[in-house]
Amino acid sequence: MTGHRLLIIDDEPSIGAVIARVATSVGYQTLVVENADDFLEKVRTWAPTHIVMDLQMPVVDGLQLLSQLASDHCTANIILVSGVGDSVVNAARRVGTARGLNVTAALAKPFSAAELAGVLKSNRMEDPWLTVASFSEAMNREEFYLLYQPKVDLKTGVVSGAEALVRWRHPMRGVIAPLEFIPFAESSACIDRMTQWIGTTACGQMQTWDAAGCRISLAINVSARNLHEPRLADQLASQCRVAGIEPSRLTLELTETAAMRDAVQMMDVLTRLRVKGFHLAIDDFGTGYSSLVQLHRLPFSEIKIDRTFVSGCTTSSESRSIVRLVIELAHALGMKAVAEGVETADALRMLRDMGCDEAQGSFIALPIEAGDIPAAVGQHTESTWYRTSGPWAPTLPKS
Question: In order of start, what are the domains of the chain with their CATH numbers?
Fold first, then answer.
């Protein structure tokens, strides 16, 4: 089966069929849909490598679909087509590119079969390196691994926990950052297997640290797609039970945008996770479009302040006010406030003075190997880290 999967959305079935025939002739596996609901469902379940999108669609137009694809971190190559003329199609292309999408071509209707074939061929000059098959093979070969970024308790100054961060050591491309592969995993069923692997690996690592006398909490990231899996709570509880880890020592982090998407549907899974003892953190807080009512109703136990505001809190009065308000909001709702992206001693000191509970960032420590965590934790007791006056600088390893 070809590795090139082309999803076509056009409300005119005859045009969609023509595009499919041309695409099939140049080596694509094709699927044609006529409306936005079917299109978005196929993007999630079929994981196309390429998309041909008609901009002039009834009810939901192409610009709205581009916005949704950007929110879903779609990684497919997108070819835009429309009968409104070159200038409009090219403007839409610029909009899609600005949103971070791979808009690789724009065609104004009417176009010839030869013209379309040329565009499709140019889009498949190189085989896509990231496919469901290659991702699964990488997992089978154990190319993924976890690094751990320490967190400090700002009340005591000790290292209280860490966040597990996934990386991919690709045999040809070297170390790949999560932004390059997590969106693809989320657009396919791969994210469920990856989350299960992260949970098992993290719990096993905590068991190893416990045996070495290093007892800390750990945070792992979960996708909004994971929360559509009703067995998630049971799977994580089982992984903790096998490793002898209390669920209360594990925090599941969910981005703000994902958390606010279809909150009612997620309520059941999130509540079951809390009932089983897990903590829940809303990540990147302040960058999405939260409803405070939903934030209050969903059972989160922690708010993570986005690095954008944290990094600017020492120089910008607006950022400083936002950080202070988020900390106060978290405490008013009975939640813990955690700052990420701490890059300076001044920022760390300011967060402590504002009453922030925990912090992490490059000033404290970059993500480090699992074997380095016990030394990092043991190196910092209250007497060596926390000072009420004078210089306040950590000596945690930086790599």
Answer: 5-123 (3.40.50.2300), 132-385 (3.20.20.450)
